[in-house]
Structure formats: structure tokens, C-alpha cells
Amino acid sequence: MELNENKQKLREYRERAKELVAQMTLEEKVEQTLHRSPAVERLGIKKYNWWNEALHGVARAGTATVFPQAVGMAATFDEDLLERVAEAVSTEARAKFNMQQKGKDMDIYKGLTFWAPNVNIFRDPRWGRGHETFGEDPYLTSRLGVRYIQGLQGHDENYLKVAACAKHFAVHSGPEALRHEFDAAASRQDMRETYLPAFKACVQEAHVESVMGAYNRTNGVPCCGSHELLIDILRKEWGFEGHVTSDCWAIKDFHEGHKVTSNAQESVAMAMANGCDLNCGNLFTYLVQAVKEGLVEESRIDEAVINLFTSRMKLGVFDRKEENPFDRIPYSVVDSVEMRALNREVAEKSIVLLKNENNLLPLDKGRIHTIGVIGPNADSRAALVGNYEGTASRYVTVLEGIQDYVGDDVRVMYSMGCHLYKDRMTGLAEANDRCSEVRGVCEESDVIIAVMGMDATLEGEEGDTGNEYGSGDKPNLRLPGIQHDILKIASEYGKPVVLVVLCGSATALTWEQEHLGAIIQGWYPGAQGGKAIADILFGAANPQGKLPVTFYKTMEELPDFEDYSMKGRTYRYMTQEALYPFGYGLSYTDFAYSDVTFVGTPDVKSGVEITFTVKNAGDVDGTETVQAYVKARREGTPNAQLKGIRKVDLKAGEAKTLTMKLPAEAFVLFNEDGEAEYIAEGYEVHIGGSQPDARSAALTGKKPQTLYI
Questions:
Q1: Residue 629: in which H helix or E strand, if any?
Q2: What's the pLDDT tens digit per position in 289-317?
Q3: How far apart are CA 482 and CA 272, in angstroms?
Q4: Which residues are tagged catalytic?
Q5: What whole-number distance in Å separates Cα of residue 153 and Cα of residue 311?
Q6: pTM for this structure?
Q7: Which of 77, 110, 139, 208 has its CA 20 to 30 A from that of 354?
């Protein structure tokens, strides 16, 4: 629902909400500010649980389509595809909600308020939750976040399909173990250049219905009780009209972790007075006492509950079913053939080809007698899904995908090779207890496919992970356990080795880049991931994914994890050479650019339009990801920054002439005071299939075309 075009309907909802709130007691109003809101039967208000998840599919509520993890979807660089995914997710969400309502099932994860997407910036590859995000770049995160929200919320003129939530506002990316007490200190410049843009876009362009505050403090103040973040910026500067929710049990951190308040009453008063409407948790029950003690005004609680009821009214849950078109979505759409086909398409488009020496890929199964598949993620369902996942009716692992693809024509031999992170498979065994089996498989095989990486038990959220390897965040960038040793064994046989990495973040693959024939980054590719990877391996699909994060050579070159300054971080500010740069990814074909020029006289303050021709110069069909980067020609400004993306399908030999508009905002930078400005020294605009850095040129053998303003 486009609220800016439907102010009248919004006013009607708010008036209805005010009428309801005016009839409620203080205790009843306070109960409505909890994520588990009870019924008020005398007013016809049903109970409602606000907590639901849809990061990459409807999560934690039974069968649903499990799409690739968010960082994998980000690797598609495809705005249209992200909205299609979100439309599918919201369709399944409504279908499941309709089914659940018939059964009077109003439990957690059964509502229409979904706490997704996560638009935090993946500033450091050690952060365990980074795979929930759309990567390290504010522009890419903004574009994908906006379209994902629009797909979730829909475009009906009267109702939201579901309510989306931009989280975690505003500066949040680890360390996980410290999040309940940590202060993320960020300069005004970094706030405006990096940490705030995606949230601003979600609010002002996508009209996101909800915003979630982060656990940590930002510049000394808990995010869920920050007047600057929740009122000055979110409400007053950006014009946000939805509701604000806390992260789960974050309010108690005010006095237990951050020590900025003395007790629960002071904490809930601080959160409520500074713009937090909903408490994921139960601490807001202390609001009754806080009002009686004069710590917070009852009128502010009225405002919060009006915001919450308005959101529920936008979803149509207070109206008759025949008035809401989404109430007619049948349960049969869930996990349908069409959903599985879309899931496979998204997985194929998310996969990034990092290396393909001497065109080792795609494999020709007609020339192969035996394929050796090794590695702890080869037959792992956990490595398909990431976190905040739903339940698929069928999971296709990489091993199964390969077996299904080659059928009986090719022998597939398999060894798990090693434990995901331990040095032995069982506690009673000696170390390296599968190495002899790996050797046996490699010796018999014509080609070896090694499937390594991690899963969400190793990288994820504090509380969801925890073992002898780590607790949420990654201790280093290496492949865990003895996976690297298994790869060395495989390389000893002189056979072609293809490495498939399933994980949600950057790994240091320096040795692998030097010694292995082909490398694929598969992310957590969803329930259809094994089929998609097999399609890529054997050429049924042409890889088109691009890295939404930088792959560094070593962890030692990174700044301190707890330092939130962007200096030296991500492709925008790093000075060293990357192993694999942001925006990089190979194809089985080749693309060439020509006739790159401005349309008219360029004026950055009015936006700039560029025309160019891109040709598929290879002999197979493919999709190019056109990337536009802008670099200000002043010392001390960021490296060339992504400011435009375009997906182009091209048949072999086909060329298309396109135009791309870069708005005035593409040329804005921020000074130390966080003030927007244009650079008098001028700009460079780069158009091509990668960013304009030396490492990308070395890996791809080509450079983007450059224009000067």
C-alpha cells in the first residue's frame, strides 16, 4: 500500500484506532504493547502475536518455501527478482495465516507482522549474522531492501499484504557476544554515508510498516531508547508513520547490560518515552507502574497503542473477510510447483563463479566416468538453509543434485571427508579418520567436487550458535576444522578439483585460488540448492552472481572487530588488494562494453544519464550485471562506490543499447559533521561488469569504461 498516495485511508485507520484506545484502561493498553498481545473481548479485539520471521521465506511455522539466505539473494544484484521472491513469501504467508485462523491458531510465528528484512551493513566478515543481510554496500542494501519490502507489503490500495520491518536500527553488526552491553561508536560521517542510508530508503521509498531497534548502544545510547534515532531521525526527519518494536528482550539490557538505568521501571519508561511502541518480550508490563510513578506519560502509551492498532488495521484483520483480497489466498499455493521453480531460479542466479581455470567448468558428463564428491557440506541439509529458516518438504543437497543430474550415466563416489569443524568424525576415533576414504575416492575419480564451508551452527546469532568452534561470530576467515587439509589431499592426485563453498560470509581462499581449478561460492542456497549447483556445474545454467561482500586474503588485514569506524573496511574504504572484490563474479560467456557516453551535458545536481552498448561476445547465452560506480576526485573520499545496477539477458552474440540514470544522490558525499555536499573537483563514472579496481581487472582481464565529470 503506497501510504503517500493513500493518506485518507491512513487517517481512517488512525481514527478507528483512536476510538478503540479511548475505551481501554491503562492496564489493557499496556498489555497491547507486548509482542504477545492478549484479547480484549469487550472491544472485539482478538489476541495477536507480533513475532514472525520472513528473512528468506516464511520461517518457524511449518512447511514453506526456503529460499536462498539473504546474502545469497543479494549476490543476484537483481531488484526485480528480490521483489518476486518477497511476493512469493507474502503469498505463502497469507495462505498460512488464512489456514491458521481457521484453526484458531494465533501462536508465535502465526501473525502477519514479519521482522524482515535485515538491512544492517555487513561491515566485517567475522560477524556471525552477516548472512542475514544484503552485504556490505549501502546502495545495494537500499535497493534490495526497498524491493523486498514492496514485495512483502504489496501494492493494494487499501491493505498491506503483510507488514515488513527494517532492522536493526541503526548501527548493528557485532560482536554477538557483547551485543547486550556494547556501544557501537560511529562518526556522523559514517552514520550518514554507511549506516543510515538503507533505513532511510526503506522508510521513505518502501514505506516500511515497522522498524526494529538494535540491542546495542549507538554513541552511548541504547538503540531501543534513543531519542535521536527513533524520534529526531526516524519520525521527524524521515517522516516514518509506522510502529517501532524493540529487539527481543532488549529493554532489560538498559539496566542489566548497558547500565544506563537502575531498574525495569526506568528502562521501560526510557524506551517508551523515546519512541519504542512494542516490546518483544514482557518488560513493558512495568509501564503501569512507570506511569503511576510519573516516569512516562499515559498519553505516550496511547500514541504507541494507536500506532500498533493502525498497523493491524492496515492488514485488514479488523475488517470482514470479504473486504480483504488477501483472505482469499488458498493454502494450496504453499510449497507449490511454481514456488519450487522460483526457488531453483533464485538459487541459480545467486551462485558466484570465483575461478574457472582453462574453462574447467562447465563439466561435460559425457566425458566423465566417475565423479568424486567429498566434504562435510556435500550432503548437508543444514548447509542449504542458513538461519531464520522455514521447513521444506524436500531438501536437495549438492550430492543429491549431482546424482540426480548425471543419473546412471556417471558413477558418483562420496566421502564426507571430515567433520564440519572437528578433526575427527567420532570422539573414539583418531584424528583425520576419513582421510583414507578421501584418498580412495580421489584415486578412482576423473573429477573431484569438494563441498566445504560452514552452516548456521557456526555463524549466526548469539544464543542460536555455541560450540567448541565459536559462538555466533567467526574466530577467523579460514575453512573450519581440517577442511583445508582435505582439499590438499584432493589436490595431490592431479585430477581437476572444483571447490564449492557453502557459507554465508567471506572466507580466506588464498591457497585454494592458487591451487584449485575452479571455485564456486554457493552461499546457503535454499532447499533447491543442490539442483541449482548441479545446473551450474554441468552448464544447464550460466553463473551470473556477483559478490555482495569483499573476500579478504587474511583476517590480519582487518581493523579491530569492535571498531565501528569505516576506515579500512569494505571495498569502499579499504586500501589493500582484495582476494575477490565486491561486485566480482565470472560467467561461462564474455561481455563487452562500447559506446559509453553521457546523454546530454552531465550535471550531478540534476542527475546524470548514461547510454552504452553491452554485447555477449561469447558462444553461450548469459546475463550480465551492469554496475555503475562513482568516484569523487578528491583525496580522502571513498573509493569508487556502487550507484547503479542493471541486469541484462543476452543471447550469444547479441548486443543491446541501454540507458542508466544516476540520480543526484549518487554524487553526494558527507563531511565530518554528517552534512551532504557535492565535490567541486569532479567525478569519475565507471560502467562495466565489476568495480574499477586493479584486482577485478586482473581476475577478469577487463576494465570498466570511464567517463569524467
A1: strand 622-632
A2: 999 999 999 999 999 999 999 999 999 99
A3: 50
A4: 247, 459
A5: 12
A6: 0.97
A7: 139
Same domain for 502 and 644? no
Which cell is 416 given?
A: 564426507
Domain closes at, from 293, 324, 355: 324
CATH of the domain at 677: 2.60.40.10
- Sheet containing strand 217-218, strands side by side: 183-184, 217-218, 221-222
**What pLDDT, in 10s, does the model give residues 210-230?**
999 999 999 999 999 999 999
Sign of the torsion angle spanned by Cα atoms 332, 335, 341, 347? positive
**Grid cell for residue 233:** 531521525
Answer yes or no: do 225 and 347 share one domain.
no
Do 83 and 207 sit in the same domain of this protein?
Answer: yes
Do 520 and 636 fall within a single domain?
no
Answer yes or no: is pLDDT of 469 > 80: no
Residue 693 lies in a domain: yes
Asked whether residue 581 is assigned to any structural domain, the reply reads: no
Separation CA 389–CA 57 (nearest Å): 7
CA distance 143 to 162: 20
What percent of the chain is modeled with pLDDT above 90? 96
pLDDT, residue 138, reads: 98
For the chain, the domain total comes to 3
- Type of residue numbered 139: Y
**Distance between CA 568 and CA 109 in Å, rounded?**
40
Q: Which of 193, 221, 188, 211 has the alpha carbon at shortest distance from 118?
A: 211
The count of other CB atoms within 10 Å of the CB of residue 42 is 9
Flag whether 124 is in a domain. yes
Domain housing 635? 591-708
How many C-beta atoms surround the C-beta of residue 8 within 10 A?
8
Q: What integer is the mean pLDDT of 1-29?
A: 86
What is the average pLDDT score of the chain?
A: 96
Rounded to the nearest 10 degrees, what angle do helices 529-537 and 398-406 cross at?
50
| Per-residue cell: 574 | 579499504
For residue 369, pLDDT over 50 is answered with yes
Query: What's the alpha-carbon Rg for the chain, to the nearest Å?
Result: 26
CB 682 within 8 A of CB 708: yes
| Whole-number pLDDT of residue 3 | 44
Name residues whose C-beta falls within 8 Å of residue 647's C-beta, 6 or more positions apart in sequence: 77, 78, 80, 81, 544, 623, 624, 625, 626
pLDDT for the residue 462: 81
Q: Which residues contact 393 (CB under 8 A, 6 or more apart)?
A: 63, 335
What cell does 707 get?
567517463
Are both 319 and 397 inside the same structural domain? Answer: no
Q: What confidence tier does 10 reach under pLDDT thresholds 50, 70, 90?
A: confident
Q: Which one is predicted more confidently, 173 or 3?
A: 173
Name the pLDDT band for 630 (thresholds 50, 70, 90).
very high
pLDDT of residue 1: 47
Domain final residue pick, 324, 358, 379: 324
List the 518-521 sheet strands across, edge first.
Answer: 352-356, 518-521, 497-502, 447-453, 370-374, 411-415
Cα separation, 592 vs 689, whole angstroms: 9
- CATH code (residue 281): 3.20.20.300
